[in-house]
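Late entry, written up from scratch paper. The run itself happened at the end of the previous shift, but nothing got recorded in the book at the time, so transcribing now.
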Amino acid sequence: MTSGRGRDAPPRVSAKLAYASSRRGLDDTTSSSSFTTARSGSIASYHLLHEGYVRDRDGNRVRVGSTVAYVRDGEAHIVIDPGLVASPERILAPLADLGVRPGDITDVVLSHHHPDHTLTVALFPGARVHDHWAIYEGDLWISRPAAGFIVSPDAELWHTPGHTPEDISTLVRTDDGLVAFTHCWWTAEGPADDPYAPDREVLRASRERVLAVADLVVPGHGAPFVPSADTPR
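Output as recorded:
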């Protein structure tokens, strides 16, 4: 498990805490300059709960694991992409090491609807669940576009179509700079041409948007990486 540097593990909390969130009026291609600018007193931290992979391909069989992350931002406890893992303990055990229980999670973000990024969302039945067009809590469905939605003071959703038309990324301000949790890349190596992307130019545009602001990228199926000139566009 990896984490943003210089952060203590969050204290155990007994229940979800209420906090305010709001949506900025952004369209699908406009970034929030006020969000991407660091603010004083930024408190968000992140921990990589499970490093994703795609391996052991044999005909129509393949091992697939999603990169699963935890973000602590004040009263918000956010899990990103709880999907395919070898067992639920691959997610729950690292959270327990941080003193966080499933019932403490306030929000879950799903980058897109492929099952390898959604299959274990039920581990967190009390959380608000965010996708590209709505928030779900219990039996309540709240329609809203994801672009510009503020999950917590230092975590914002962007619409970044490419891998699928509905993909969203989670941008988080931390002591390590701006961290992008995104499926614009499977790993640091790309692939340069995502075999699932319906439009290569749309994917390229989303990658360029993320690279313009991100200090660190956490991709869908691999380890975090620092963007460079070699990062696939």
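The chain is about 10% helix and 30% strand.
(Scratch paper discarded after transcription.)
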